[in-house]
Design a protein that fits this description.
Blueprint (H helix, E strand, L loop, with lengths): L4 E6 L2 H11 L3 E5 L6 E2 L10 H4 L4 E2 L5 E7 L3 H12 L1 E6 L5 H14 L5 E3 L7 H9 L6 H28 L15 H17 L4 E11 L2 E10 L2 E2 L21 H14 L1 E14 L7 H12 L3 H13 L15 H15 L35 H4 L5 H17 L4 E14 L2 E14 L33 E13 L8 H11 L4 H13 L3 E4 L2 E4 L1 H13 L6 H15 L5 H10 L7 H6 L6 H4 L1 E3 L4 E6 L2 E6 L10 E4 L11 H9 L6 E5 L6 E7 L2 E7 L6 E2 L6 E2 L25 E3 L11 H8 L3 E5 L6 E7 L2 E6 L2 E4 L5 H4 L2 H9 L13 E5 L6 E7 L2 E5 L4 E3 L11 H14 L7 E7 L7
Parallel strand pairs: 1-2, 1-6, 6-7
Antiparallel strand pairs: 3-5, 4-5, 5-35, 8-9, 8-14, 9-10, 9-13, 11-12, 11-14, 12-13, 15-16, 17-18, 18-19, 19-20, 21-22, 22-23, 23-26, 24-25, 27-28, 28-29, 29-30, 31-32, 32-33, 33-34
Helix pairs in contact: 4-6, 6-17, 6-18, 7-15, 7-16, 9-10, 9-13, 9-14, 10-13, 10-15, 11-13, 14-15
Length: 909
Amino acid sequence: MATGKKLVIVESPTKMKSIQGYLGDGYEVLSSVGHIRDLASKKDIPAEKKQAYGKYSIDVDNDFDPYYVISDRKTKTVAELKRALKDADEVLLATDEDREGEAIAWHLLEVLKPKVPVKRMVFHEITKDAIRAAVDKTRDLDLALVDAQETRRVLDRLYGWDVSPVLWRKVGSGREGAALSAGRVQSAATRMVVDRERERMAFVAADYWDVEALAGKSGSSFTTRLARIDGASLARGTDFDDKGQLKKAVVVLDEAAARALAAAVETAAEASVTALDAKPGTRSPKPPFTTSTLQQEAGRKLSMSAKHAMSVAQRLYEKGYITYMRTDSTALSTQAVTAARAQAIELYGDKAVPLNPRTYRNNSKNAQEAHEAIRPSGEFFRRPSEVAGQLDRDEERMYDLIWKRTIASQMSDAKYETTTVTLALEADGRKAEFTASGTVYTFKGFLEAYEEGRDEKRADADRADDQSLPALAVGDVLSLTDVEPKGHSTSPKPRYTEASLVKALEEKGIGRPSTFASIIDVILDRGYVTKRGQALVPSWVAFSVVRLLEEHFSELVDYDFTAALEDDLDAIARGEQKRIEWLKEFYYGSDAHVGLRNIVDNLGDIDARELNARPISDSVTLRVGKYGPYLEVVDPANPDADPRRINVPEDLAPDELTPEKAQELIDAPVAGNRVLGENPANGKLVVVKDGRFGPYIEETEPEAAAVVDPETGEVLETAPAEPAPAAKGKKSAKSAAPKNRTASLFRSMSVDTIDLETALRLLDLPRVVGEDPASGEQITAQNGRFGPYLKKGTDSRSLESEAQIFDITLEQALELYAQPKYGARRASSALKEFDADPTSGKPIRLRDGRFGPYVTDGETNATIPRGEQVDDVTFERAVQLLADKRAKGPAPKRTTKRTTTTRKTTAKK
């Protein structure tokens, strides 16, 4: 029987605790911990439904009806929600107010099937006033938003499950065997990174020179640069195109001319001021943060990945420090504008704000503007110093960034004056003109609080550093010293960083700001891109994937088509378009579009070998193989012979693999296939090789015909010896011959430096450490897939390092086995140790595990999110990670609970 309580369901356990405190005893607040169900995997579909749902978990012939399941990890959550529902007289679905939040609320409604009134409760910040206001102003579930999100989910399943298998068959796998995948947004993002690398590969650098000098007057000096010779402008980097050709008529100095001119200027030693040009200017503040601009600035200023930035922002939102962090809007509420202006005046004076409040318009393509901009929560903003003790380091830095940006967005323009001075002199019979600029801010305005970061640009080399100029007048004579010719080369467009890729995706209308972090995370995990510093470098696998998609799925990776899909999903969200009709057109095609199914059914033959090849020169081809990229080198004198294969270093970026670099790799001394010596125990040769699985040692039979290069130690290829005749009546089989012993090198070893003694020790593994005196079982030390370990029967123990395989004694091994297999036995290996966890009461340790760093209290393990640095993990952050992991429950098992609830077509209201 209902007790009169209202059941409020939110997504996050952290949010649950805060809201319960604001609502009081008349409400029970519970968390769904995100989605409670999803599209079924193939193994979870009942036999009687396999025909309809078996391929995609979607019945494409019956209005694209999806088949959902509840996983075991959410069974307890659903049971708890149903228990609470029995005692409730009303349900408030308080998930986030976006498409995904609306869909979560719909799934809760479908699974729980409440018989009491249901209302949708929405809010943009977690403060007492905002939560109380949300309870008093509920609405119905927005089925148009649900339709848009469900359409997106079905669309992504159809795209991914039809296109990804083609990649598996024709390209293979990504870094460290990661499965390749294609996706509506991730494939377009991958193409953008590859396209930028293609531009860099096609780029032709141009060289140009100029002259710099130090101009001085009355003890003050400033840097000047040669700008014109005899009235003609000197070349700058922006005057050249990507092929190294000039775009306009300018003077290009070579090194000899620049040095001669510099010598003449140094001889002249003086120049006169011929022109002074002072121009006033203003700079306006940037709008408050949207999801996209927050990710960009967090990348530039805080060196956070997009995923890490969103994780930190979500924690701040759930703890009640900022407003909702997934938003396209740059608008601020009236109370927020008032708070920002008041705080700006308090900190910087009455002139810090303009007469009228600032308003901003979002020019981003596909902006939905459903919420406010991201800002500090509440009617009065807490200063960073006031919250510092309540937040971990990353949260504190993020809050400081958001607070400053919000305050600055309502402040006055900055005012400045830029002065450009021109100096002229006669140098070797030619008129040389030098220029310099200096900017002075007459009123700093918003710059007192905040200045936006900037991404690297290709013309940065020609930018003059900001400097102050002394008081000058036309006719003044200045000394010129430190005259120096400077050589420059034009540079290609910089590679994308996470920040600049987010910006580019938003400008093209590809994806949604809320998905940018997951998009970048996917292309990193798949091995399509790697990070070199902040830059995103595409792999050769990415080149193969993009080439396949461009040649056979061109529409699906077209930037405009991908952006148009977002427009269509927006139209569905607004109720202007029907999801079923739209999905039919996308999948089956129409007069305007071929349709996904028609593309997949008519792919034709795809030459995988050709797809994964790229010519480097006439005799060298780069190929992408199962174990990575390699060069295939054909001998022009003997083209029918087997080509040489040379591995391409993993850290070599595609634009760095020029014909010259390829030849350097070809000519490099052979590190692998080197004879280390003879095994004295059996007389066999011990050879170190560099194979596709990595470097390894092989023990081979000595052959009289074998020839060893005395300079490199390389085993030269020789004709195979004549095989012995097979016995009469028996087949000759390779399997009859015993295999050579092999052993992989440790990660700490190199093919260049390994010696015979170490190689013999590797071949003798596993090493017998001794016998357990209690059981008589033999203990061995060896290396495995997940690192070094001890083995005693079926019982194993991990070792701290590969070196222990050779060094560990029986006593040390017995001590390891005497400790518990899990828990606290490896305390000494912790990277950091903290105080006891407030929930479990056990000390928290930060360790480096097989799959990356993690924190543990001996009962719960929580992985450190990608992008967070181990050094930045504090006790408070560790406690939060463990609490979040406990709230999610145990890891999913293989079995799932099935539900027969399927998506029904919703009528437009």
